[in-house]
């Protein structure tokens, strides 16, 4: 006999459903892969390392499968409190995962030491299935790739070793099918049309941060945080979004704003366009720059900014 609850609902059927944490060093292509898998630009991507600071959750719904991807900050040795918080976020994602997708940049020399270290430290006692994705194969020659794959297979660390190009969507479909095999059986955790659980304002702040990472150099992007202070949906007219860009010093504020406010205006325009695409509606975006000295090193400040 079929069960029903007091609302007359049938229990959800079991399917392949679980969490896949994407982990690796900064800049290997984790966020690019996440976006490619979901066919949506959910995670911000820039050529600079440490663009991703929070865990970004993306849900891939396919027949009989719900894979919940966790895009994470790249693993580094932290040097200030913000980076310590970022590493905690990465660690928690690894702990929550049913499958670990470890990603390396096939064109980088530093990866094999990183993998050895990872298995010696954080993954020493982990029995979660681990898959290795060797990314950026679009920049590699076959004679380089095959021995590399072989060496990683021989470590015995991984259930599977898969070469991909996240950027060119090469091998991604095959990798997805492999990942699915290792997901546990569960009733679905999210409705079938869900894409994420993070609120719109998180992604709006991320889009603004992406533009800052793309447009400024050196310390400015790393000294910047974005807070959405007001997000007002309006019946008539465009939604109003007021964002505060926090920096650590007056000199950074001056750079962000630029001569006659030109630089900030450019950030506002490019961010607004992407925000409108993401939300699929028009918005009015207001940007303000504020100095909060040493916010990256201040635990209380970091907590108030959502790094827990
Ligand atoms: P993350 O820090 O690991 O999240 O890396 P991102 O996804 O932000 O990507 C970092 C940089 O690598 C960006 O400039 C991407 O365009 C680039 N990238 C990502 N995947 C590939 C790939 O498969 N091939 C190449 N050539 N570049 C890639
Ligand atoms: Mg990233």
Write the layout of secondary structure elements.
Blueprint lengths: L14 E10 L5 H9 L17 E7 L2 E7 L9 H16 L2 E7 L5 H10 L9 E6 L6 H14 L4 E4 L8 H10 L3 E2 L13 H16 L3 H4 L2 E8 L6 E9 L2 H8 L4 H18 L3 E9 L7 H6 L4
Parallel strand pairs: 1-3, 1-4, 4-5, 5-6, 9-10
Antiparallel strand pairs: 1-7, 2-3, 8-9
Helix pairs in contact: 6-9
The chain binds guanosine-5'-diphosphate and magnesium ion.
Guanosine-5'-diphosphate binds next to helix 1.
Outline:
36% of the residues lie in helices and 22% in strands.
- The overall pLDDT, averaged over residues, is 94
Discrete helix count = 10
Number of strands: 10
Helix and strand element order: EHEEHEHEHEHEHHEEHHEH
Helix content: 25-40%
Low-confidence stretches: none
Radius of gyration of CA atoms, rounded to a whole number: 21 Å
Look at the helices and sheets and give the structural class. alpha/beta
Shape annotation: globular
Query: End-to-end span in angstroms?
Result: 46 Å
Which ligands accompany this protein?
guanosine-5'-diphosphate, magnesium ion
Strand residue content: 15-25%
Sketch the major β-sheet. Answer: 7 strands, mixed
Give a written overview of the molecule.
- The protein has 308 residues and is α/β, with parallel strands linked by helices.
- Helix content is 36%, strand content 22%.
- The strands form two sheets. Strands 1, 2, 3, 4, 5, 6 and 7 form a seven-stranded mixed sheet that branches. A three-stranded mixed sheet has the order 8-9-10.
- Helix 6 runs antiparallel to helix 9.
- The mean pLDDT is 94.
- Bound molecules: guanosine-5'-diphosphate (GDP) and magnesium ion (MG).
- Guanosine-5'-diphosphate binds at residues 26-32, 45-47, 51-52, 74, 135-136, 138-139, 165-167.
């Amino acid at each position: 006999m079929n069960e029903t609850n007091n609302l007359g609902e049938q229990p959800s059927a079991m399917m392949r459903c679980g969490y896949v944490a994407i982990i690796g060093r900064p800049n290997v292509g984790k966020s690019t892969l996440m976006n490619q898998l979901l066919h949506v630009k959910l995670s911000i991507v820039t050529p600079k390392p440490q663009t991703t600071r929070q865990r970004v959750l993306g849900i891939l719904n396919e027949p009989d499968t719900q894979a919940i991807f966790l895009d994470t900050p790249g693993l580094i040795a932290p040097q200030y409190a913000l980076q310590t918080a970022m590493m905690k976020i990465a660690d928690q994602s690894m702990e929550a995962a049913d499958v670990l997708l470890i990603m390396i940049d096939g064109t980088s020399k530093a990866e094999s030491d990183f993998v050895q270290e990872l298995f010696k430290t954080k993954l020493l006692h982990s029995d979660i299935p681990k898959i290795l994705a060797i990314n950026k194969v679009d920049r590699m020659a076959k004679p380089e790739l095959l021995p590399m794959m072989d060496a990683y297979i021989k470590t015995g660390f991984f259930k599977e070793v898969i070469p991909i190009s996240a950027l060119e969507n090469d091998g991604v479909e095959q990798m997805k099918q492999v990942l699915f095999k290792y997901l546990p059986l569960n009733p679905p955790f999210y409705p079938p049309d869900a894409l994420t659980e993070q609120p719109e304002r998180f992604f709006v702040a991320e889009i603004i941060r992406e533009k800052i990472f793309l447009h400024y150099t050196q310390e400015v992007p790393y000294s910047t945080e974005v807070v959405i202070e007001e997000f007002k949906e309006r019946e008539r007219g465009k939604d109003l979004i007021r964002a505060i860009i926090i920096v650590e010093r007056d000199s950074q504020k001056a750079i962000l704003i630029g001569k006659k406010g030109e630089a900030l205006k450019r950030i506002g325009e490019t961010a607004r366009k992407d925000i409108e695409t993401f939300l699929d509606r028009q918005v009015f975006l207001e940007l303000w720059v504020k100095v909060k000295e040493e916010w990256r090193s201040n635990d209380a400040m970091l907590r108030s900014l959502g790094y827990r």
